[in-house]
């Protein structure tokens, strides 16, 4: 998470702001897209090597945001299958309209940024 700003499109700042005893943590991300710049805090649960789940909390941007990555062994050593789910709704009608216009491009670039990062 601390390195998201280095490779995730539109992420201008990313910080882990609190660690919990159960291994979960709170992360703050600042996202900028053209003239729109916002930040939000997510609760992140990690169950290595199977699952990453993020849920936005205390957000003025999202009515809800949940992001799930599930990993299962692939057909050959060193590979895996990835199940990815993102479900969100912006509070702002303007943001909802912008997101609907660019949704496919945004998802494609986000997934590519993570798969490219995995290849490093």
Automatic annotation (TrEMBL):
CDD domains: COQ10p_like. Residues 1-115 form the Coenzyme Q-binding protein COQ10 START domain. GO terms for cellular component: mitochondrion. It holds the Pfam family Polyketide_cyc. It comes from the Eukaryota. Signal peptide: none annotated. One of its GO terms (molecular function) is ubiquinone binding. GO terms for biological process: cellular respiration. Required for the function of coenzyme Q in the respiratory chain. May serve as a chaperone or may be involved in the transport of Q6 from its site of synthesis to the catalytic sites of the respiratory complexes. Belongs to the COQ10 family. PANTHER family: COENZYME Q-BINDING PROTEIN COQ10, MITOCHONDRIAL, SPERM PROTEIN HOMOLOG. Interacts with coenzyme Q. This is Coenzyme Q-binding protein COQ10 START domain-containing protein.
